[in-house]
Amino acid sequence: MKRREGLSKLSGREPYVDDLPLDDFLWGATVRSPAPRGRIRDIRLPDGFDWSEFVIVDHRDIPGVNCVFLMEEDQPALAPGYVRHVHEPVLLLAHPSRAEVRRAASAIAVEVDSEPAILDFRLSPEPEQIQYADDNVIKRLEISKGDVERALADAPIIVEGVYETGEQEHVYLENQGMIASMEDDVLVIRGSMQCPYYVVKALGPLLGRGEDDLRVIQTATGGGFGGKEEYPSTIAAHAALLALKAGHPVKLVYDRNEDMAATTKRHPSRVRHRTGVAEDGRLLAQEIEFTLDAGAYVTLSPVVLSRGIIHAAGPYACDHVHILGRAMFTNRVPFGAFRGFGNPQGCFAIERHMDVIAHRLGMDPVQLRRVNLLRDGQTTATGQVVRDGTDRVAVMSRALGLSRYREKREAHAEYNGGHPYLRRGIGLATFYHGAGFTGAGEVYLDSRVHVAGLPDGRIEVRTASTEMGQGMITIFTQLAVDRLGLAARDVIVAAPDTHRVPDSGPTVASRTAMIVGRLVERACDDLRLRAGLLATARGDVVKTAIIAWHREHAGEELIGEGRYEQPPGIAWDEESYRGDAYGTFAWAAHIAEVEVDLRTYGVRVLDYVAVQEVGAVLNETLARGQIQGGVAQGVGWALFEEVVSRDGAMENTQLTNYIIPTSGDLPPIRVDFLENPYPYGARGAKGIGELPLNGPPPAVVNAVVDAVGDACAEEPTAIPLTPERLMRLLDAGAAARESTSAGAS
Amino acid sequence: MSGLVEGRLEIHFTLNGEEIAVEIDLAERLLDLLRYRLGLPGTKEGCAEGECGACTVLLDGTPVDSCLVPALQVRGRQVDTIETVDPSRLGPFLETGATQCGACTPGVVMTGVWVRDHPELLERHTIRELMAGNLCRCTGYDGIVEGVEAAVKDAEARRESEARRPPSGRE
């Protein structure tokens, strides 16, 4: 099936929040903290404006609790006299003119009596920098398997490494935005978001409103990637406060600069590996320290940390593992959800480290992975027995074959020997991603889906899952069509509106097709029963029965419900962090071929092969698009996307100086699927969306090491591997060689 | 000249094939004029500095970033926006997965349609080069590049079938 809303998007008819017609409304703007920490001394409204024309809101205008509810109740909607990071919202303005409200917002001076800030999560805080608990550790988690200390003591070879990843900005092409308006005593929020019910939960206590007088509607959303998971709640809160005070609808739409400066990014990380290895390459012990920069509020950092450490040991069998995870408070703009959610950080570290180990052993990186990749019956770091029947070595072999890995390595040796300044290399990453909420998370979510039979015989799929480009509308249509034998035109997928759809959980964690899609199937089954049909009824029979039901029950709704049930045999212990972390994992092997230009230190990706096992592929075009888009985002993070910070906030807040890949920067991304249907996912699907972001950074950097690693002073261990960073490594290598040869002569 | 004194001016230009007259602010961007005053929100703002191409329109037949074009500059000229593109010819972009979230899409389509209608560009440039002014964060570009390729082929096939058709319907 082709993307259902595709033509509407291609022809420019799809209405995003800033496109909606709106009468008699005001434009909103946000005044923010200029300092990373301190008490607000004064907020000065400068001359040159007629301030009576403006609606002005501060924390005293909040009718309920001054907090954007998420995991912890620590983040105020508007700073109550004290700020913890640059760009923290302090004051809100609204005015009929967009230009005027923006001019006014940037003219207002917020004066702060600064206090000592901590801006580097890698440093131990000084006593005066402590702001969370007694050590600035927001969350600490541990995974223990076997006896790592003893296994390390007994191991013949120990390989250590420290790996770092930088922030990453989402760069969804549609900036964030919300409209708030009062409609018959109900506060209505419309906007760009992934999780309508998160907005309801965040705004209820803030505004003192229940679900009945607060309605959240997702408008067409131009990309999310996690960036529209939690932050939209803050914008919605601001738009709502302005609209309530103004008595008019308020539109609060960020421009690119504000969006990049003020909203969340991927957590920076530092991961330390200490690994005991046998001479044949077997991993005997893995000791891992995994540290994230959380920023100034808790946001989702504890769960990002959780997913990060659960995946941090890689898809390898090792009997003795200890992982210590910590998320650190800093006075930086809070970090948040981003596609991959902690796994990309850990994946860069372990997959880079695997190549470092291979080099130490003088072993082919492929062979090292072949020896260690999980076989069915073996266990992950949390003790989860893997038994899905997927041959993970075969996934890697398929990638090796498609990329012509062996021939390329030989050809590169010859090419690199003959070329004056170009060096080619090829690199591999093998990795995994668990879909859905971790552990018992899905049980707590208790997601529900409704499928309504309408009086004309069509059906309407009602879920809180949002379309943000990933293909939810198309996939849910396909599932309903298959389940009930209807034509696509008889299936409507409702726009997420919290007064019309049940809470089917957030649109995150690669859970939409696999978990919510399964509930769509169950709701279809339930609808059929409620219409008085046998479980085998399909097509016109279903349609006719729905019409007949409505004739007998005029004015009533015919609704089938699907409710989450945990698949059998899953056991997770939140206390000990042992057990089945996810219902299933998707598996992948990616191979990058690169060319390094020794004149410019630029790295060009020449070829990219992505092979993955994601259960059953529900829609080839959409699935391929998910992989290719994830790879592009991963390649960008690996090579170009550098966040430059001052006072803990992003300084290069433009697409001119934060560089994402263009079509000219990427080769065709070659995608192949091995399919092993997962019995508890919709039509056999596993999660797919986040998986592809994990592999590209290590695959690309491993390829760079293959090309020029020998010439570097030390192997690259940090991304983004910008030309500047690579230059330093190569120049240091050259200097070291020079001094060695000078010493020898 | 009172318009100039007050910072406003009436201009005439051809928008999507129709002559229009509109009073503009001298500092007004073409993008804002289209979106907020002429009821054409299909053209999107992505970055407001000419990097992302989401606001691409055709000015006298050539793609430009409408966020960088003062409305004043389109006086007497021809502006074509996504609203004027024939949806029945966008099938090739749909087939290949050229759109996901859709925010970059109108700009991508405007550049893509320009390439489609000027196949001579492909004698000197690749599609990847020609599309490099339109940032997309969803597709990884393969769907877009293949979509433009397919649209070019589709246009070629249409031209061939036009050429084969007798000059007049009466014969």
What does this structure look like?
The complex is a heterodimer of chains A (745) and B (171). Chain A is of the alpha+beta class. In chain A, 31% of the residues lie in helices and 23% in strands. Chain A has a seven-stranded mixed β-sheet, sandwiched between helices. In chain A, β23 and β24 form a beta hairpin. In chain A, α4 crosses α5, α8 runs parallel beside α18 and α13 runs parallel beside α14. The model of chain A has no long low-confidence stretch (mean pLDDT 97). Chain B is an alpha+beta fold and 171 residues long. Helices cover 33% and strands 16% of the residues of chain B. Chain B is built from six helices and five strands, in the order αββαβββαααα. In chain B, α4 packs parallel to α6. The termini of chain B are far apart. Chains A and B meet through α1 and α16 of A and α3, α4, α5 and α6 of B.
Summary tags:
heterodimer; A: 745 residues; seven-stranded mixed β-sheet; six-stranded mixed β-sheet; 19 helices; B: 171 residues; 6 helices; 5 strands; 33% helix
Topology:
The complex is a heterodimer of chains A (745) and B (171).
Chain A: H1 6-10, E1 26-32, E2 38-44, E3 55-57, E4 82-83, E5 89-95, H2 98-107, E6 109-114, E7 137-145, H3 148-154, E8 157-165, E9 177-183, E10 186-191, H4 196-207, E11 214-218, H5 231-246, E12 250-253, H6 256-262, E13 269-277, E14 283-295, H7 301-311, E15 321-329, H8 343-361, H9 365-372, H10 392-403, H11 405-418, E16 422-434, H12 441-445, E17 448-453, E18 459-462, H13 472-484, E19 491-493, H14 512-530, H15 540-552, E20 558-563, E21 572-573, E22 578-579, E23 585-597, E24 603-613, H16 620-639, E25 645-646, E26 649-650, E27 669-673, H17 691-694, H18 696-708, E28 718-719, H19 723-744
Parallel strand pairs in A: 1-12, 8-28, 10-11, 14-15, 18-19, 24-27
Antiparallel strand pairs in A: 1-5, 2-4, 2-6, 3-5, 7-15, 8-13, 9-10, 9-12, 13-14, 16-23, 17-18, 17-20, 21-22, 23-24, 25-26
Chain B: H1 2-5, E1 8-15, E2 18-25, H2 30-37, E3 56-59, E4 62-65, E5 78-80, H3 91-95, H4 105-117, H5 127-130, H6 142-164
Parallel strand pairs in B: 1-5
Antiparallel strand pairs in B: 1-2, 3-4, 3-5
Helix pairs in contact in B: 4-6
